Amino acid sequence: MKVSDLMTKNVVSISPDESTSLAARLLYRHNIGSLPVCSSDGKLRGILTDRDIVLRCVAAENDPEHTPVREIMSRAPISTSPDDDVRQAAEMMAAHQIRRLPVTKEGKLVGMLSLGDISRTHSYNMEASRALSEISMNIKKR
Prior knowledge:
Elements: H1 3-6, H2 20-30, E1 34-38, E2 44-49, H3 50-58, H4 69-72, E3 74-75, H5 86-96, E4 100-105, E5 108-114, H6 115-119, H7 125-141
Antiparallel strand pairs: 1-2, 2-3, 4-5
Helix pairs in contact: 5-7
């Protein structure tokens, strides 16, 4: 099965120039844990997580209203292609300790694949479980 068969296609994203406070509101409003950061041409530039906001902005005592996303986002995010096999994507998630994977085509964001997306397909329960287990084990070691 291809990534395109399971990915979420309508993805909420944010510009690197937007404020961290807007990013936090988007995360809350859409009940999501990360936002792909895209330039005006749709190219993926980074990813911003709720954890990035807390640790790199709030805990650092920066004002979220005046802190641009580009200052706290993770750059060069790991991504996959819509044509990649779901098993490969799950292995990538486990190897890089991530639960959400941007899906890009020619550098442009076309979707997101989460462990939840993978686990909803009974054919890939084992891959999703293995990836989550590896992510959780490494979090405990930190």
